[in-house]
Amino acid sequence: MWLEAFTDKFEAFVGVNPFTMLFAWVNLLILYFILKKLLFKPVKKMIDTRQKEIDDMYSDAEEAKTSSEAMRVEYEKRLESANEESEEILKRAVRRAQLREEEILREAGVKAQRVLERAEEQVALEKKRALNEVKDEVSEMAIGIAAAVIERDVDKGEHEAMIDDFIKKIGSE
After folding, report:
1. Contact between 159 and 139 (Cβ < 8 Å)
2. Long-range contacts of 119-122 (CB under 8 A, 24+ apart)
3. pLDDT, tens digit, for every residue of 80-114?
4. Which of 144, 146, 142 is nearest to 134 (CA)?
5. Which residues of the chain have pLDDT under 50?
6. Contact of 156 with 146, CB cutoff 8 Å
7. What DSSP assignment string belongs to 98-125?
8. Nearest to 145, CA basis, from 134, 130, 159
């Protein structure tokens, strides 16, 4: 008897009662809708917002990567262009230096030629002057000799003619 009473109480406690089951299901649905309204939607909204932020960060990172790649390519092009330009400037500077060197050499050659011409002119003048001095000395000697030989005074015209004749004879020898 006590076993029957225990079993009845156990069945009553564990047993399935349709109203209790209906009450439990309604309770579960109400709890689900409350949790959905108060917990799931805000959590889902927060997750969606966070996912959007992450997607935006990935998108921004991809744009930054693309932009940095484009900037790198642009930088390399500019660097190559700058290298080419510096080489061109260097070539032009070398060419200008060569042209200047050639110009300086030409000017030096012209100056050297002028110096040589002046020196030759000066040598020619010195030679004429020396010849004139020798001519004057020779003419004085010749006059002295001629006066002694002739023992007469020779006029200037005769004197110059005799000197010229004497110089021509000396020059031809």
Report:
1. yes
2. none
3. 999 999 999 999 999 999 999 999 999 999 999 99
4. 142
5. none
6. no
7. HHHHHHHHHHHHHHHHHHHHHHHHHHHH
8. 159
Torsion of CA 110, 111, 115, 116, to 10 degrees: -30
The residue count for the chain: 173
Are 157 and 139 in contact by the 8 Å Cβ rule? The answer is: no
Nearest partner of 130 among 141, 138, 119, judged by Cα: 138
Whole-number Cα distances in Å, 50 to 30, 37, 42, 45, 75: 29, 19, 12, 8, 36
Tokens standing for 19?
């109203």
User: ∠ at Cα 38 (27, 54), nearest 5°?
Assistant: 135
Q: What gap in Å lies between CA 66 and CA 58, rounded to an integer?
A: 12
Look-up of token digits 């889902």: 44
Largest CA distance in the chain: 206
CB atoms inside a 10 Å sphere around CB 142: 18
Instruction: Indicate yes or no: pTM above 0.85.
Output: no
